[in-house]
Amino acid sequence: MAVEITTHRFLVTDASWRPLVFEKAYIYHGYVDRDARTAITLRIKGDGDAKLVLNTSGGAFAKAEFECDIAIEDANDMLKRCHGAVVEKIRHLVIDDGQRWTIDVYTKIRREKPPRPLVIAEAELARDAASRPPMPDWIDPAAAASDAYSELNLALRGLPSSEKPP
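-> structure tokens emitted (166 positions)
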């Protein structure tokens, strides 16, 4: 069943969100295939939960998502075939001011460790939600994550040039 969501992504400015974490998981996220409107991804959590995910775009922030469980052995084999288009991250779930946030701390991008931590927060709202979520202190409201920080672009292109060391 598709879940339609509206996603807002922001760069995180400090670590004051950490005491609010109620769940975390290590995740491998690989891109199996993609085109302009659809991405097929593989998501493996550290606990062995593996899913094949189909994402379709529905506009600037909205998308539909379909997930199905797959055997961990198959997932590990598929991950090897993602040809570097893989990110590794620690996903933290946080609730701040009644809003649920997903905070991803990227540990490897295209199989390389970033020069400094890349931390991105994401809030998902109902499809018809027109406004942004309330902004916690640990997010700079002006620092909306550009498309360069989408997981797909990180996996395929690596860090934006502004994040790379000189």
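The chain has one domain: 3-163.
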